[in-house]
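Q: Hi! First time asking for a complex rather than a single chain. Here are the components, and I think there are three in total. Is that enough to go on?
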Amino acid sequence: MYSTPYDYLPMAIMAAVAFGFVAVTMAATHLLGPKRKSEVKLDTFECGIESQQNARFPFSIKYFLIAILFVLFDVEVIFMYPWAVNFKEGGLEGFIEMLVFIGILLAGYLYIIKKGALKWE
Amino acid sequence: MNILQTIPLNHYIMLSALLFSIGAMGVLLRRNAIILLMCVELMLNAVNLLFAAFSVHHADGGGQVMVIFIMTVAAAEVAVGLAIIVMMFRKAGTTDINLFDTLKW
Amino acid sequence: MNTLITVSLLGIAAMLSEVFRFKKFIQTVFIAAVTGATGLAVLDWGTSYSYFRFMVLFDDYALAFSILFLVLTLIWLLLSQEYFCNENTRADYFALISFSLAGAIILSSFSDLSMFFIGIEILSVSAYVLAGSNRSDIRSAEAALKYFLPGAFSTGFLLFGMALIYGATGSFNLSNISLWIIANHSNLPVMVNAGVVFLITGLLFKIAAMPFHNWAPDVYDGSPTPVTAYMSTIIKAASFAAFYRLFVSCFSIMADWWTPLLVIAAAITMIGGNITAVYQNNLKRMLAYSSIAHSGYLLLAVAAINQLSKPAMLFYLAAYSVASLGMFTLVNRMGNEQQLDKLKGFAHDNPFYAALITLLTLSMAGIPPLAGFFGKYYVFLSSIRSDLIWPVIVAVIASLIGVYYYFRIVYNMYSKPAASAHVVSLSGFDKSAILITALLTLLLGIAPALIADII
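A: Yes, that's all I need. Here is the structure of the assembled complex.
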């Protein structure tokens, strides 16, 4: 119930280990690792294929649309959690209400399919 | 859980007021439309925190239901907002709202 | 309730018309459904039912405003015929309009803070999209952005206010909140006062009242003209319906405390809006500022908060919106350049319609015996009843300033056309829209009791 400073000791140990591990490994790789500096070695990716250009460039807007639609439908699912928890209390009425809700979502889904928002090409 | 409930309600109010102010100042001071959008989200989430805290305080589920509503509506709002920002970016080539001056401010 | 369900289903039907290929008939369906919804609202008249566990309450106030929104939409449809021409976007626009109408109806009928929030969001999110609906024009995109950012910002304020009210009272239900405030009237926690301030701030943003009006002229200017007409009439009416409903049912007991805030906002809105409108040479922008100024008068009715302010608000909104729809018909026909100069010679070519537009302008300026005059009269009456004397004096001075720029419109219409100027010409739908709005303005001016006595 009441927390004392003593309760935080495990967390302090945990934090010390975490930070210590980072410090030790960084120092160790720096000191022990061999150092070879060549153009290929300093490249962003070492996968055999030469990198083309900067990664930060505008990309196709289609990804954006699909991401947005995903977020929308993803968030709407949140309404199902309280319904699922109270499924028995809600009874038939609650079930029908959820069907109406899903039906409206489905109408939106049909609409975006028809509009071609999910087409890649 | 128990430790959470020992935190006085006032602290929640302070925290969400602080978050809300940070968001509001962000909207007023920043100039990038995307960051503005994120600041608005921060404001809404400060409100969510407040609703959740009050919901526990009053032992009333209404506040939590409101949080769910705010989250879904905010998602819809952000979808529309991002779409508008993208449309503006394609036309103006920037997301700096100071440069949007086709209309007199 | 049936009205709300009809309008919501209409929105879904409009969306599905794209899928099931009845896009061609969607306008017919829309007109039929909106007329039907109006009929359903009229049939429910005099009843007062609560639905969804006291989330919405359809009383006479809600029904009167619903009917107002629906009728205005029907008139609005006349002037926006060309807006719906494009086959690809027609169904979308109808769906968005239906959804925002559903939001407006919720805003006139909510009896729970969560419904208030949902209503205002349905109304505004559709409006953000509509503002940016002219995709070929950067001005439209900019208007959408400038509408969206302040809109989302003010939603944050509204929600924070709601959270504080909920925190103090422990309920979302308007009558419970009101009962709690009455019970604890002697020592209200500061949280309630802070919540009311946040709510007022958010709502002043939404109705574009003066300290928070900066977004409105740009948005009204940049949006496609039919959307501007929609925003400055139906959306404005819905916001005011919500404003009044919220404050009269929750906070009327502590009116002494928040009335000064609203009165000050109203005073600077009336004066500021009218003075800035004088300096505009663009008719659309001028109407935007005039719309801000009219918000000031309406705010006075909200601040007065007595028996008279409800009919005063309804009548003022009806009179202003009808006249405004007629004016926007003219703006719509002026194309992309809405300079006042472009009106020159209009009266020479269309003497009859110029006379009707003069009538609408006079009504907006508040010249008796037109509808606008009685709107102002009722508002002033209700303010005086609440002892708000100096705001009424300010309002009268502001109206006098208003008369000046409204006469500029008339003056430009009746002056000689510049050589080689393209004179504005009206289509059949435009003519009927102007005719109907002018007739309604006259009718409401001759028999103001038609609307003023019903609620």
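A: The domain at 2-99 of chain B is CATH 1.10.287.3510 (Helix Hairpins). Let me know if you'd like any chain examined more closely.
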